[in-house]
Amino acid sequence: MPVYVVTGTNRGIGLEFIRQLSQDHANIVIACVRSPTSDVGNLQSVIDESKNHNAIILDCDISLAESINRFVETLGMQKILVDQKVDFLIHNAALNLKPEMNSLNLEPDLVHQMITANVLGPALLNSALLTAKLLSPKVRIFHISSGLGSMAVSLDHKPRQSAGYSISKAALNMLAVHQAEDIKSHLPGAVVALVDPGWGKTDMGGENAIYEPSESVGNMLKIRTT
What tens digit of pLDDT does each residue of 11-64 get? Predict the structure, then answer.
């Protein structure tokens, strides 16, 4: 039974990942949310409707190292993971604070929060799972990036907005490049990939976006075993 861990699952793309993955009862699905006080009503409904008893919700705030470490410890104690390791790790959780910020009015505190969540969080979670020996030998790690993290795309984006988010996603892209090599030194069969979900109709993407979440996630899942 393949084991999936997905971060940021209480809405949008993350919620749709859980919806599609939990439909297959051969999957063990770990849906991560920021805290016990997160709004998980929709997420719980998706899991209940799937009738997948191997789909569970665990707390993991990727902005906090202690929360990440606590999540990894809790994950290792789950009965459904006996003799199992994480086969697919999908880093979906991210922050886009004050999209109207540009490079001339960056707010350091907000940019720091986005770098912490969007870059350091995935880095620390990978390291913690690797140290705990919870990653399978052929784990597939997907970082959900964005066209806004691409310098080529950003050059054609006018007016330019979401500067802090763009900077954090560009940093995430470089993190993935390094991880692709570094993780293989421990797990030669591992693959680290960057995936752009496209402009999706989510709370972050807005109603004018192009893709429905179901279409975006369906396309991303097509490459999971490549």
Answer: 999 999 999 999 999 999 999 999 877 778 899 999 999 999 999 999 999 999
CB 81 within 8 Å of CB 29: no
The yes-or-no verdict on residue 205 having pLDDT over 90 is no
Residue 66 neighbours by CB under 8 Å, 6+ apart: none
User: Rounded distance, CA 58 to CA 72, Å?
Assistant: 10
pTM: 0.91
Q: What is 195-213 written as a DSSP string?
A: E---SBSSTTT-TT-SB-H
**pLDDT average, residue stretch 136-161:** 84
Please list, in sequence order, all residues whose beta carbon lies within 8 angstroms of the beta carbon of residue 20, skipping any fewer than 6 positions away: 214, 217, 218, 221
C-alpha span between 57 and 223 (Å, rounded)? 25
115, two tokens:
């770098």
Identity of the amino acid at 180: A
For the stretch 68-103, what's the b/e string if a residue is b when 16 or more beta carbons lie within 10 angstroms of its beta carbon? bbbbbeebeeeeebeeebbbbbbbbbbbbbbeebee
